[in-house]
Predict the structure.
Amino acid sequence: MGRVIRAQRKGAGGIFKSRTRTRKGPAKLRALDFAERHGYLKGVVRDIIHDPGRGAPLAKVVFRDPYRYKKRNELFIAAEGMYTGQFLYCGKKANLQIGNILPVGQMPEGTMICNLEEKTGDRGALARTSGNYAIVVSHNPDTGKSRVKLPSGNKKLIPSANRAMVGIVAGGGRVDKPLLKAGRAYHKYKVKRNSWPKVRGVCMNPVEHPHGGGNHQHIGKASTVSRYKSHGRKVGLIAARRTGRLRGTRVVKDE
């Protein structure tokens, strides 16, 4: 019986928990209410801030509460072109402008959107990382569904009532610059979670990893592994449909 491998230990947390002490808070859309479903609300961008461990900047937006005499502070993912002092409009009747939040069904086809809801009212789940965006492909008024193209290239059918922010997420081009040195990778992952540096399986002993051991560093078995193997064996390419380099241009099938 071998040792419990690193992939198994990660599930329990412990030293592998994410570092959240300095985070600024969860970035979500407004909670869906009557005002957004039938009209619109006006908010003002008070500040654009950096969130440690996140590539995209966040926007602090202040709304007046539609039901009580108070102000509501929201934390949105900033869209490219957003600025402090900008007025944002959220709701069905809002205009199609960068930073505004409205249902996907109200947007024309071809609109670039970000922080898109997967389920109505979940406050944003798709296309949230820096430089990312989804594209509205088509609408079906009869079924109340819209088709969007996600950053991965997949097309997804979602309810037209799902909200999204107009524009692309700020902070794009972040991955174009190489890290170049270990110190930068160290600081990048220090604020995210304990996932760097990664020791390769082939340079371990047989007790520590299925790829370990041998007189030369080699895997010694197929790198692909069945989905139904035990947890300590699931390393390498798990349940791979295909392996090797992606050759040629990517073709996305129109469903």
